[in-house]
Write a structure and sequence with these properties.
Elements lengths: L2 H17 L12 H14 L4 H10 L2 H27 L9 H10 L3 H26 L3 H28 L5 H25 L1 H6 L4 H20 L12 H8 L7
Helix pairs in contact: 1-4, 2-4, 3-4, 3-6, 4-7, 6-7, 6-8, 6-10, 7-10, 8-10, 10-11
Length: 255
């Protein structure tokens, strides 16, 4: 998919979002650990995207910049939905969390490629987390919110992968190998940190820490291959990586 198609997709979903009124029910009953977990994810989604937008501006592609601005707006809409879930459960959103601060510090000042590589760590974690929240919360409203956010994240991943693949296309093999290894290390660390920090919520959703980490890394593997190529990535060669990637991100059929 080229950048014009990505932009058209974001524009279409922005129109749908503008036409939709988000429900704000009250009286939900969620486990305390799950409430705390959603609060932390809500804080992470609630950024203004200043650093990413600045990096995209420096890249000099107005179409890509327009798509990034719509991506940031879509992430902010997730923060609104998650804040509604927190209030539904009788709690209040929090202003921030240390894990989000770490992500921001890693990304800061490194250019667009580092911004996207770091952002993708959160996106991959989100894929598994929102699927667990959709399938394991036992609450129709929470499942609907999680399913809609998951559908958005499944669209975001190919958008960022396309740009990263372009960004590393001219990098020599040694540089791609080093970048792929570093990305693997960061992803493994991020998955472990989230599994520890959200372990109580994951158990409430029927997911062990070990299974969460394994699933996140399984989702991540074809992304490394898609960005850096088969020679640079430590990926399974049992099937073409882009075919595997396409099956991994089958649309969730949410608006």
């Amino acid at each position: 998919m080229d950048i014009h198609q990505h932009l058209a997709m974001f524009e279409e979903h922005a129109r749908r979002r503008a036409a939709r009124t988000e429900p704000q029910p009250l009286g939900g009953q969620l486990p305390p650990a799950l409430i705390r977990s959603v609060q932390r994810f809500q804080a992470g989604e609630d950024g203004d995207g200043t650093s990413l937008i600045a990096a995209a501006t420096r890249a000099g592609d107005p179409v890509y910049l327009a798509a990034i601005r719509l991506f940031v707006a879509e992430e902010q809409s997730h923060a609104v939905r998650l804040a509604n879930v927190v209030r539904y459960a009788g709690a209040a959103p929090i202003s921030g969390h240390w894990t989000d601060t770490v992500f921001v510090l890693v990304r800061r000042g490194g250019g667009l490629r580092l911004e996207l590589l770091t952002l993708m760590l959160a996106e991959v974690v989100a894929l598994r987390y929102y699927r667990a929240l959709r399938d394991g919360s036992g609450d129709d409203y929470v499942a609907d919110v999680a399913g809609r956010i998951l559908a958005d994240e499944e669209r975001h991943v190919p958008f960022h992968l396309d740009r990263l693949r372009q960004g590393f296309a001219g990098t020599p093999l040694a540089g791609r190998v080093a970048a792929a290894a570093g990305w693997w290390a960061l992803m493994t660390g991020a998955a472990l940190v989230v599994s520890l920090d959200h372990g109580g919520a994951l158990r409430a959703l029927g997911l062990s820490r070990r299974r969460f980490v394994a699933d996140v890394l399984r989702l991540f593997r074809p992304m490394v291959t898609a960005v850096f190529g088969q020679r640079a990535a430590a990926a399974d060669v049992s099937e073409p990586p882009l075919r595997r990637l396409g099956r991994t991100f089958r649309p969730a059929h949410h608006e």
